[in-house]
Amino acid sequence: MAVETYKWHSQLGAGAIEYSQTIRSAQFGDGYEQVAENGINSTAIQVPMKHVGAESEVNALRTFLLAHTVKAFIITPPGEDKGLYRVVKDSVRKNVISSKFSELSFTIKLAYGVYA
Q: Which domain holds residue 27?
């Protein structure tokens, strides 16, 4: 099964790119604290994005995004490196601007894995 590639020209959405690190720590009685990363991929990256376009284009993107909450896809988000990302559940929102144009906002999260 091939990994799909994001083909729309979207921009950074409202809010900042978030970096969340998971670490383990142990605090000892003498004040010493020992810390270690929790696995080899301990940094999670979330990127808020938005896309404005014609109603048909926004609907095609919406269908793509809703199909990729579990299945990863290849994208180069603004300000980040090319990689595998998934759509954060319940983050896809559509705002109708006019009878012909709409705005779609969504958040993607880095999904670790290998792609060709």
A: 11-110
